[in-house]
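Long-time lurker, finally posting.

We've been working with CoA-binding protein (Ensifer oleiphilus) and I want a structural starting point before designing mutants. I don't trust myself to interpret raw outputs, so I'm hoping someone here can both generate the structure tokens and explain anything notable. Sequence follows.
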Amino acid sequence: MNHDAYPDYYLADILRSTKTIALVGASPNAERPSHRVMAFLLRKGYRVIPINPGHVGKTILDQPVVGRLADVKEPIDMVDVFRAADALPALVDEIRALETLPKVIWGQLSVRNDAAAANAEAAGIKVVMDRCPAMEYPRLIG
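Top reply, 14 upvotes:
Generated this for you. Predicted structure of CoA-binding protein:
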């Protein structure tokens, strides 16, 4: 897929079909973008599982924090990535090792790695990069 531009229908379909999101890089700090996006997604009715190894056993926005994706005990529709772009290849490898693959990997603003995207797409996972669901949702869904 061309990751320079996404058709609106592609993004809207992902946002409408997604129910459970693992948010990698979730922060308890209300000033951080990951915290604000997580709050937005929760308000829109998504189930959001915060992933942050430094905060296991705590909660973020009343959601229990998990240390890594392999520790999530339910199917994940989307992995929303708040990590540096150079962390994406290893994260895709971690995702591909899951027993049940997510349908989508969504890289937040500035999170783009075309080789990692190709690796994920080879496993049948849709990829969105350098976009924010909290920006796309109001634009596409309302």
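Before you design anything, note these points.
The longest strand covers residues 20-24.
The CA atoms of residues 103 and 125 lie 5 Å apart.
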